[in-house]
Amino acid sequence: MSTVRAVARLISLRCKWEFFFRLDALLGILGGAIEVVAGVLLFRVIYAGVRSIAGWSWGESLALVGTLAVLLELERTLLRGLQRLPDLVEDGKLEQFLLRPVPTPLFLAFHRFNPQSLWRFPLGIGVLVYAAHFLPGVSWPHLLLFSLSLLLSLVIYGLMVFCLVSLSFWLVRMHNFFWLVYDLAEFARYPAGVYRGAVRVLLTTVLPLVLLSNFPVMVLVGHGGIELLGHQLGVLAGFLLLGRTLWRAGLRRYRGAGG
Amino acid sequence: MLRPYFRAVTVETKTSLAYWGNIVGFLSAVLIPPLAVFFLWRAVLGAGGTLGNYDLSAMVTYYVVVQFFVANTPFSAWYEIGEEIRNGRLLLWLVRPASHYGLYLSRNLGGWIPYWLLSSLGATVVAGILHRYFLVPGEWWQAPVAVGFWLLGVILAFNLGYTLNLLAFWTERTTGFAGVADVAATFLSGGFVPLDVLPLREVWLFLPFRFVGWLPAQIFLGRVKPGELPLEFGVLVLWLAISVVIAKGVRTLGLRRYRGAGI
């Protein structure tokens, strides 16, 4: 009887395993909602006492929260596969990817497309729609520029992650280094106006965190246009070059040993 | 009697230390967020403004301290606990002559010790960078008492994470629960915004999560009088007792239906 129960349990486990992914997605929405609400609450508390933060209005700051949420969800959905590179290098299994007839970095980036993360996508969009109520000057051309700028931000962010994970060719284990990129994204949470001087230059060039969320919002509200997109393209080209150099140097170092 | 637990602490400490680069990578969690949020608060409070009881110095100090506490707290305990229930390996723990809870608590603490040591160095560096704004405690006892409260808060947070992982007896996988709990606990412990400037502050300050971040930071800032500490300690111990009872109850109920089958 106990054997039958154990077999029945195995079957039910498999069924629950399949169901789990939906539950996981629902819980992911809840987690994402808490993050977004925390971001909105922080600004709500501040704007209760001031009219603007370094020239940014309540609506613009809200748009910043929404834009960053959308950007991070797009990265989680599309590019999470990059995080597997350190494990592949550590285990000596990168050959599985090198042998495929497609550019390895691209295959790595997209091989773990995660549609579950898309469930959280409406959270950021919702905040953006809410923010639009406080931004009367937004028009369709602005929205088009915003989308282009967001796309460039996504590619830059992906390249930053790629450069970071490429360091795994030199470091054995680097799980905690992922947090470096996510912690650095803290700089993207706040209006660009709060950063001044050399810090602002640093955060819009070498460590372009401010550029990621702020530039799309700036083109959305009309505080900049094509020149901001040009700036993003320049930064993108720089990271493309750096990523390519790191990848090639890393592959020369890679020996396929591991376990 | 305690030897297996001490052994678990030392083994996990050594395991963590084996990958020092990984520990260094974790430093970003202590270094970067307070530096980033500093620029925001300088823009908001830099001209002598205040928010609630916080001027710029108090706010900067709060974030440096609370980030150290919150980033170094294992809210989700150990994902392995839930995974081993699912894959049937919990049986290996059940036949050992030591408590499953005690061993995992010891392993967790042991694994975190190197992170805590390096993070305290990191927090000191941040405090040094922001020294013009960082408030050093006025009394000698404030910092050690704050750390003492936080360490008990760590056990409280572990109990929460442990209990959530035990839900694997019913849901098979609990990474989703633990992930949500991580974000929620960070918020509720004051990691995003000081709890006393939030709307509905009475609600947030009633919950046990404040012991992990907000309260130790208040002690560090000298905002908790020595006479109030025994009461706070009593409330913390009460929450600890409640969390242990809940964890044991959930474990007992879960083990009744556990068959050791796994995938």
Can you give me a brief rundown of this structure?
Chain A has 259 residues and is mostly helical.
Q: What are the defining features of this structure?
A:
heterodimer, A: 259 residues, mainly alpha, 11 helices, 69% helix, B: 263 residues, 13 helices
Structure description:
The complex is a heterodimer of chains A (259) and B (263). With 259 residues, chain A is mainly alpha-helical. Chain A contains 11 helices and no strands. The model of chain A has no long low-confidence stretch (mean pLDDT 86). By secondary structure, chain B is mostly helical. Helices cover 71% and strands 0% of the residues of chain B. Chain B is built from 13 helices and no strands. The two termini of chain B are 34 Å apart. Classes of the chains: A mainly alpha (259), B mainly alpha (263). Chains A and B meet through helix 1 and helix 8 of A and helix 2, helix 3 and helix 10 of B.
How many structural domains of chain B?
A: 1
* Total of DSSP H or I helical runs spanning 4+ residues of chain A: 11
Shape verdict of chain B? globular
| Number of beta strands of chain B | 0
Query: What share of residues are in beta strands of chain A?
Result: under 5%
What proportion of the residues of chain B form beta strands (DSSP E)? under 5%
Average pLDDT number of chain B = 91
Helix and strand composition category of chain B? mainly alpha
User: Helix share of residues of chain B?
Assistant: over 70%
The helix tally of chain B amounts to 13
Indicate the mean pLDDT of chain A.
Answer: 86
- Kindly provide the radius of gyration of chain B, computed on alpha-carbon positions and rounded to a whole number of angstroms: 20 Å
Secondary structure category of chain A = mainly alpha
Main β sheet profile of chain B: none
> Could you say which overall geometry of chain A the principal axes of the C-alpha atoms support?
globular
